[in-house]
Design brief:
The complex is a heterodimer of chains A (about 280) and B (about 240). In chain A, strand 3, helix 3 and strand 4 form a beta-alpha-beta unit. Chain A has two domains: about 210 residues, Glutaconate Coenzyme A-transferase, CATH 3.40.1080.10; about 50 residues, no CATH class. The radius of gyration of chain A is 19 Å and the shape is globular. In chain A, the strands form two sheets. In chain A, strands 1, 2, 3, 4, 5, 9, 10, 11, 12 and 13 form a ten-stranded mixed β-sheet that branches. In chain A, strands 6-8-7 form a three-stranded antiparallel β-sheet, with helices on one face. Chain A starts with a strand and ends in an 8-residue tail after the last helix. Chain A has ten helices and 13 strands. With about 280 residues, chain A is α/β, with parallel strands linked by helices. The mean pLDDT of chain A is about 95. Chain B is of the alpha/beta class. Chain B has two domains: about 110 residues, no CATH class; about 120 residues, Glutaconate Coenzyme A-transferase (3-Layer(aba) Sandwich). Chain B contains seven helices and 13 strands. Chain B has a six-stranded mixed β-sheet with strand order 3-8-10-11-12-13, with helices on both faces. Chain B is globular, with a radius of gyration of 17 Å. The chains are: A alpha/beta (about 280), B alpha/beta (about 240).
């Protein structure tokens, strides 16, 4: 029997996310933007973001809205639309604590987390200033060979993996499609909160075609419907990136007055129900 | 008569010229010019090309982890990196300028560089802007090191550097760049004046070969159409597709 909780919308879901929570957020194709906007609306504070493995608009927006205290990331950028200026400014001013890393180190940490083991060894990093800055990483020796130093990345256990998926079912299962990193996030996190384009009655895991890209309700604590929940980012099979909006956002990022106006227009107003 | 070769097309052609022997070329984020070069190499050699951010992945079905695991096993032959700063020892800085962490200028971050630079045999550095601001004596922050101490597992590393002015090749043993060719219309003095690090220079430096009419046709046809998937803005600006 699934004990996944169903919420009416992203705002109700966001109210169940406590201030100070460590949140894992995915990089693209299924970014929970509506939940992020709902977190801004409920004035969430002190969040710790783990970007999987990099961050974009969701990190920049939450930082600009002062919801974030720290970020662990391999990089934050608006991609083709330009730099994430609010992120850069917050790092420079010390408004947020930065824990820089490289993409596979995030995956390694989450993989250790999902396996319930303390660390994962990984190649690379040796000789970088990232390794110098990451005093929580360790340089260890390969126990099966002589003179083979390797980096140990500690397990990452986010409080909540925050994801947006195409399909959820009434039993609490999710379909993550190609974005199987979302399974790693969910396995590693203590709880997973998902918004979904669509919630169906049929059990997704009973469908042979869908089950392989499915995530069991075992991991899923909360689901809310959010059609268009990744907007203005893309959701493969549903909608593409709203390029005009992203260009507008790239312009307001890092500019206080423009960002305040952006928040008023696009974030603080709750979206119309079936938009 | 077709339009003359543009600087971007020359760089695409120059990068592709370094990829002849790569069977699997992977392309990271924010890399429309290297991505186009990989696609040009594919048209010539039949190489497999995987572009992150493309919704038509050629081998990745298992999300981003695939790329790093494949690189770890040696299944990727060539990759591209860039840097806000690149120095003479091929160290790259994608993190920022000034003292870490509250830097004077903060960039996006290292992305996969601190791993892929070690793992992929042929990493080509690309930086359009060739200036003393970008090509420095020593980077402020080593996001990923150009060379590693003996004993560090490192099958991969820097192969060359392509900029708006020239092509340099990197000697991993010496830990230094050697000027390979200068793009048409530019001079050795210009390269020296705009490079913040010391590099080796042969007595006679070749001119970078211009793409011929056939190569330009492929770039403006097949490559332009394919690069529009991950980089629609670039494709529209460059090729009006």
């Amino acid at each position: 029997m699934a004990d996944t909780e169903f919420f009416a919308d992203a705002d109700a879901l966001a109210r169940a996310i406590p201030d100070g929570a460590k949140l894992a957020v995915f990089k693209d194709c299924g970014v929970p933007m509506e939940t992020a906007r709902a977190l801004v609306r409920r004035k969430a504070r002190g969040l710790h973001l783990v970007t999987v493995p990099t961050g974009g608009m969701i990190a920049d927006l939450l930082i600009a809205a002062r919801c974030v205290d720290s970020i662990e990331t391999a990089g934050v950028s608006l991609g083709e639309f330009g730099p994430a200026r609010a992120f850069a400014r917050a790092v420079k001013s010390g408004q947020i604590e930065i824990r820089d890393t490289t993409c596979p180190a995030i995956y390694s940490g989450l993989q250790a987390g999902e396996k319930g083991i303390p660390f994962m060894p990984m190649r690379g990093l040796i000789g970088s200033d990232i390794l110098k800055a990451r005093t929580d990483y360790a340089l260890i020796g390969n126990p099966f060979a002589q003179n083979d130093p390797i980096v140990a990345v500690p397990a990452i256990r986010p409080d909540i993996a925050l994801i947006h998926v195409a399909l959820a079912d009434r039993s609490g299962n999710l379909w993550v499609g190609r974005q199987s990193e979302q399974k790693i996030m969910a396995h590693a996190a203590h709880r997973t909160f998902a918004t979904a384009e669509k919630i169906v009655d049929d059990n997704l895991l009973e469908n042979e075609q869908l089950a392989a890209a499915g995530l069991s309700s075992l991991y899923v604590s909360a689901i809310a419907p959010a059609p268009g929940g990744a907007w203005p980012l893309d959701m493969p099979g549903h909608y593409g990136t709203d390029r005009r909006h992203m260009k507008d956002y790239a312009r307001v990022s890092g500019n206080d007055d423009a960002f305040t106006a952006y928040l008023a227009e696009h974030v603080l107003k709750k979206p119309a129900a079936a938009e | 008569m077709s339009e003359p070769c543009r600087p971007e097309e020359l760089m695409i052609s120059a990068i592709a010229g370094l990829l002849d022997d790569a069977a699997h070329i992977a392309v990271g984020v924010l890399s429309p010019i290297p991505g186009s070069a990989a696609l040009l190499a594919r048209a010539r050699t039949g190489a497999r090309v995987s572009i992150i951010g493309s919704t038509v992945p050629e081998f990745r079905t298992d999300g981003g982890v695939d790329l790093f695991d494949a690189a770890g096993q040696g299944r990727i032959d060539a990759f591209f990196l860039s840097g806000g700063q690149i120095d003479g020892a091929a160290n790259i800085n994608l993190t920022g300028i000034g003292d870490y962490p509250g830097m004077d200028v903060r960039w996006s971050g290292a992305f996969g560089s601190a791993y892929l630079y070690f793992q992929v045999p042929k990493v080509i550095l690309f930086r359009d802007e060739h200036s003393r601001r970008t090509l420095v004596d020593k980077v402020d922050f080593v996001s990923a090191p150009g060379v590693s101490e003996k004993g560090v597992y490192r099958p991969g590393g820097p192969h060359g550097l392509v900029t708006a002015l020239c092509v340099m090749l990197f000697d991993r043993k010496a830990g230094r760049f050697t000027l390979q060719s200068i793009h048409p219309g530019h001079s050795l003095e210009e390269v020296r004046d705009n490079t913040g690090f010391d590099f080796d220079c042969p007595e006679h430096v070749a001119q970078t070969r211009m793409p011929d009419a056939e190569a330009l046709g492929v770039i403006r046809g097949e490559v332009a159409a394919a690069i529009a998937n991950p980089y629609p803005g670039f494709a529209r600006r460059m090729f009006a597709v």
